[in-house]
Design brief:
The complex is a heterodimer.
Chain A (H helix, E strand, L loop, with lengths): L7 E12 L2 E7 L11 E7 L5 E7 L9 E7 L7 H7 L5 E8 L12 E7 L3 H14 L5 E7 L8 H11 L1 E7 L16 H8 L6 E7 L1 H13 L7 E5 L6
Parallel strand pairs in A: 7-8, 7-10, 8-9, 10-11
Antiparallel strand pairs in A: 1-2, 1-6, 2-5, 3-4, 3-6
Chain B lengths: L28 E2 L20 E6 L5 E4 H6 L3 E8 L4 E12 H5 L10 E6 L4 E5 L9 E6 L2 E2 L9 E3 L12 E7 L28
Parallel strand pairs in B: 1-5, 2-11
Antiparallel strand pairs in B: 2-3, 4-5, 5-8, 6-7, 6-11, 8-9, 8-10
Classes of the chains: A alpha/beta, B mainly beta.
Bound molecules: flavin-adenine dinucleotide.
């Protein structure tokens, strides 16, 4: 039996706009422990009358960065917690977190095979932790990221992903489902089997897939990966959002 | 309980639970939709070969085909459900067979004390036997008057509403009776072995 994962008080040390709707918060933790990329923290916010709300947020940063973690939070318009984190929080603010949590949707250098990552929207966050870890641990694991976003402006971590593509051998593919900039050469449709086949072709080794995003995307992609021949036990999924119904 | 740490500027959206505030376990919030969570792809069962089994510490295992299972006495039940990812949904309507009815078909060994529910796709979860008895648990195949959708665990899932919903194994194919407790899938991956939402038993060590 492992010990209890205790609540601790995180201090916000930096804030960064990723897109108009997405912000990254850097949290300094008094009891930091190394996470496995893909794991999340629970955040607990408490009002003056004792009313509190909890939500889960994936760690975006790599475990090589000690003492602090990044959370990347998409603002849900009528939400309770994400608008607080994105709009109210300033550097120096403190709130409770506990983690790291989760043991299946995780990848680290000890896992063999090549990585096929498929993200929808903010589902890219835990996958980014994997890619950052892969880069900073210097492992040569072949990796491909297929990232579905509505528009070019809604791509999170765009510049850093581009750098990983150039310097770290990341095979990076976007699909923009709603609008594309002039001259766009990437995909411009929802993810389908043909797209999955193209991005996973010749990755090498045994492929392990991680799929994260809204439920509808995760369902389509997980089914599609099975149809193109990936065994179910090599497809790991995480769903952030509501069912969409 | 230690003093809560007040978050500067956080007000929160107190939900109007319509007098149901006492039905929302700590750290949970109400949802109206029905979020989906699973670790991998959704299995699609073939009802022609689907079976449900009770095995392990029983004199003779029992097994039903889909048609036989649908002949078993079923009941409608309405329950509040809570997922460890923090959502709670009130008054969910189900139809299925109670575990009590299923166990009438086997002779339990006296040493049987724990149950592992096993599913298509290899998922397992563990529950103490007493918590499945006396109308506390069901194998459900209808949700809201319709056949249970695959992403919600259809054709049939376990429903153990008094525990976090990962215990309500989707795509369930049987129950194995055992003398000793054996942690299931999430229980081996950092989640609590028991999972009572009212005690907030989310993670290992809670
Ligand atoms: C394991 C895990 C990891 C997560 N990691 C992240 C992460 O890294 N970054 C991140 O931004 N979120 C992440 N989430 C989602 C996060 O926990 C919250 O659900 C989200 O921030 C919404 O909370 P809220 O309080 O703002 O909205 P709520 O008050 O909970 O919801 C308000 C309304 O928005 C709807 N809604 C909730 N979530 C979404 C969504 N994702 N898309 C569209 N509508 C939604 C609800 O159904 C409701 O109608 C994660 C969730 C899980 C379970």
């Amino acid at each position: 039996m492992k010990g209890t994962i205790e609540w601790q008080i995180a201090t916000v040390t930096a804030l960064r706009d990723e897109t108009s709707e997405v912000k990254t918060l850097t949290l300094s933790l008094p009891n930091w422990t190394a996470h496995r990329p893909g794991q999340h923290y629970d955040v607990r916010l408490t009002a003056t009358d004792g009313y509190s709300a909890q939500r889960s947020y994936s760690v975006a940063s790599e475990p090589e960065r000690t003492g602090e973690i990044d959370l990347t939070v998409e603002r849900i318009g009528d939400g309770e917690v994400s608008p607080y984190l994105d709009d109210t929080v300033v550097v120096g603010d403190r709130f409770e977190v506990r983690g790291p949590i989760g043991g299946y949707f995780v990848w680290d250098r000890s896992i063999d095979g090549s990585l096929l990552l498929v993200a929808g929207g903010s589902g890219v966050v835990p996958l980014m932790a994997m890619l950052r870890h892969r880069a900073s641990a210097g492992v040569g694991t072949p990796a491909a990221l297929l990232y579905s976003a509505r528009t070019y402006d809604q791509i999170i971590y765009g510049a850093e992903l581009d750098m990983l593509r150039r310097s770290d051998g990341l095979r990076l593919t976007y699909t923009l489902t709603r609008a594309q900039p002039p001259g766009w050469k990437g995909y411009a449709r929802r993810i389908d089997d043909a797209m999955l086949r193209e991005v996973s072709a010749n990755l090498g080794g045994e492929v392990l897939a991680y799929v994260c995003g809204p439920t509808a995307l995760v369902e389509v992609v997980a089914d599609g990966l099975e149809r193109i021949g990936l065994p179910a036990e090599r497809i790991r999924t995480e769903r952030f959002g509501p069912s969409g119904t | 309980m230690p003093q809560p740490f007040i978050t500067r500027g956080f007000v929160g959206k107190r939900q109007d639970a319509g007098g149901a505030a006492g039905r929302i376990p700590p750290g949970q919030h109400l949802v109206k939709d029905f979020p989906v969570l699973s670790a991998g792809p959704t299995p699609r069962a073939d009802l022609r070969t689907w079976t449900f089994r009770i095995e392990g510490l029983v004199k003779e295992p029992a097994q039903w085909s889909w048609d036989e299972f649908r002949e078993l006495p079923a009941q409608d039940f309405t329950k509040d459900i809570s997922c460890v990812t923090k959502w709670t949904k009130l008054d969910t309507h189900w139809r299925g067979v109670s575990v009590d009815v299923l166990l009438e078909h086997v002779d339990l060994d006296r040493s049987a004390a724990f149950v592992t529910a096993f599913s298509d796709g290899g998922y397992t979860t563990n529950i103490p036997l007493p918590e499945l008895l006396n109308g506390q648990a069901f194998v459900a195949y209808e949700y809201d008057g319709k056949p249970l959708a695959p992403e919600h665990g259809g054709p049939a899932r376990l429903v153990v509403p008094q525990l976090y919903f990962w215990k309500s194994a989707k795509w369930v194919r049987g129950l194995r009776l055992m003398e000793r407790d054996q942690p299931g899938f999430w229980e081996s991956l950092g989640y609590n072995n028991h999972g009572d939402p009212w005690k907030e038993e989310r993670y290992s060590g809670d």
